[in-house]
């Protein structure tokens, strides 16, 4: 940690130290102040390392830091919902890891972090902390004898879980309902049972750029370089007009500018695939002791654990290019999961058929036979895809009378309006919803089509929403409120009677007071 902490803070110190050197004219005094800054960062790392401790006391984990004032963070072990282990490049070279603890409080930041533990200690702590969460649930259900848990078998299977104390904690006073059951203890170095559900073949990393965002990697590099040029300009005494002048010169040479754009476009799939491979190298999904464990990463290896009994469904996502190639991505919908967009990912971009097989084994099968939405929904999709571009074309045509170069904008808007017709039709074909076997599903989108399958027990409320235009069209949007994932999933532009019937079918008792005549008083 005395090495990793200063190196991690070095980028934030680089600009100030460079400024000190330039302002001091690279004199001996400026070098002395720069050296003082580096030594100070090392001393700060020493103090942080020497004043931080962690320990498990009874049923809680305590993280103590005593830098200036004493700070103690207490995390009840029974609140722990997930433990993530990541190894940045320097940590991997030194055999270290970063362990982050999630308590299901929501948000994108975990409750606790242990930075710099050894890989062996990180895995031991992860297994012990997650073991304790299941043991607490087993003790609560000890009087009933069995617990409905998601183990390594099919979801929803009832398995008997023996109750036992957490290693190192005192036995509860008095007789225990499960006293006759031998306790299950976790020991250091013990290998927990696990099953590999899927390992993404490396040749499938070529599908990565189809997800869209990775294709913009070359332009992101160019934008980052331009930002650094402006940021470093004042520190390195580079006049900002030089950077602006370079841009104007490039703009004045259209052939060179066009060639640069062609190079960036050609580099999109190559650099996109490279960046995708860095983040998703050897993507592996495991079932281990009641958890789904997703591991990935080339430079920074990350392991995320999702408690299976808290999984309420999944989301299958397909972009337009992904649908053309027959590939898809999948996320788990988990209650109380912070940063679910990143931590909830079950599968990277893989063939759709393989994704459905893996999701079926890990969470449950996808629902087919979605119910179509009324024809008026098709007209609304077409209107929303075409009308804005027609308005833009009309505005550009009016402005083009004063400035003729804007006629190209009119042509571009008309082309986009024409392309909006197949886009609107595809958006309508993507709409659908259904309810079957204790689960419901909704689907929408075209450029990013998403189908969500959730258990009906996850629904905590309904929102039936109508805009003024929807009221005139006789449709509404039904949002199933879910205490997991994004918090709500919508069936868009369903018929009024159809939407109410859908909500009543899933939770009939909830809507009965609103759909039936009240009894006479």
TrEMBL record:
Q: Which UniProt keywords apply?
A: Membrane, Transmembrane, Transmembrane helix
Q: Where is the composition biased (Pro residues)?
A: 164-175
**Region Disordered, annotated ranges:** 146-183
**TM region positions:** 20-47, 212-234, 254-279, 382-400, 406-425
* Domain YdbS-like PH, first and last residues per copy: 49-127, 428-499
Stretch forming the signal peptide: none
One Pfam family linked to the record = bPH_2
- Highest rank taxon of the organism: Bacteria
Q: Where is the composition biased (Low complexity)?
A: 146-163
Q: InterPro entries under this entry? A: UCP026631 (IPR014529), YdbS-like_PH (IPR005182)
Tagged with keyword Repeat: no
Protein name (record): Putative membrane protein
């Amino acid at each position: 940690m005395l090495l990793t902490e200063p190196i991690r803070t070095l980028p934030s110190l680089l600009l100030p130290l460079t400024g000190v050197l330039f302002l001091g004219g690279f004199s001996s005094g400026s070098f002395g102040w720069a050296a003082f800054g580096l030594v100070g960062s090392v001393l700060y790392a020493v103090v942080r390392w020497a004043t931080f401790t962690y320990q498990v006391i009874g049923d809680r984990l305590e993280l103590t830091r005593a830098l200036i004032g004493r700070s103690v963070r207490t995390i009840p072990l029974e609140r722990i919902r997930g433990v993530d282990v990541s190894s940045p490049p320097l940590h991997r070279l030194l055999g270290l890891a970063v362990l982050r603890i999630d308590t299901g409080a929501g948000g994108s930041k975990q409750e606790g972090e242990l930075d710099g533990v050894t890989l062996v200690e990180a895995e031991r702590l992860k297994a012990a902390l997650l073991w304790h969460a299941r043991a607490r649930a087993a003790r609560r259900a000890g009087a009933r004898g069995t617990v409905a848990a998601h183990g390594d078998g099919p979801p929803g299977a009832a398995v008997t879980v023996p109750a036992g104390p957490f290693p190192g904690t005192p036995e509860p006073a008095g007789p225990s309902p499960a006293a006759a059951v031998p306790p299950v203890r976790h020991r250091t170095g013990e290998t927990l049972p696990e099953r590999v559900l899927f390992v993404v073949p490396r040749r499938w990393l070529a599908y990565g750029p189809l997800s869209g965002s990775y294709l913009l990697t070359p332009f992101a590099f160019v934008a980052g370089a331009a930002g650094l040029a402006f940021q470093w300009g004042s520190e390195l005494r580079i006049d900002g007009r030089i950077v602006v002048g370079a841009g104007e010169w490039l703009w004045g040479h259209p052939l060179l500018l066009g060639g640069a754009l062609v190079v960036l476009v050609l580099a999109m799939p190559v650099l996109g695939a490279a960046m995708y491979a860095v983040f998703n190298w050897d993507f592996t999904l495991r079932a281990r002791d009641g958890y789904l464990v997703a591991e990935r990463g080339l430079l920074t290896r990350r392991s995320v654990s999702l408690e299976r009994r808290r999984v309420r469904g999944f989301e299958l996502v397909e972009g337009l290019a992904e649908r053309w190639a027959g590939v898809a991505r999948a996320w788990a919908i988990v209650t109380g999961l912070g940063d679910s967009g990143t931590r909830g990912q079950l599968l990277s971009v893989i063939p759709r058929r393989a994704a459905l097989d893996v999701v079926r084994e890990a969470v449950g099968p996808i629902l087919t036979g979605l119910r179509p939405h009324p024809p008026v929904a098709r007209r609304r999709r077409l209107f929303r895809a075409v009308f804005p571009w027609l308005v833009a074309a009309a505005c550009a045509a009016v402005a083009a009378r004063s400035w003729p170069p804007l006629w190209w904008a009119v042509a571009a808007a008309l082309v986009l309006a024409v392309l909006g017709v197949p886009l609107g039709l595809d958006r309508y074909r993507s709409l659908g919803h259904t309810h079957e076997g204790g689960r419901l599903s909704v689907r929408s989108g075209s450029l990013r089509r998403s189908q969500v399958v959730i258990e009906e027990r996850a629904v905590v409320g309904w929102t039936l929403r109508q805009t003024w235009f929807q009221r005139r069209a006789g449709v509404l949007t039904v949002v199933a409120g879910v205490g997991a994932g994004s918090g709500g999933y919508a069936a868009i532009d369903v018929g009024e009677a159809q939407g109410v019937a859908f909500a009543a079918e899933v939770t009939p008792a909830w809507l009965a007071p609103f759909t039936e005549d009240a009894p006479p008083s």
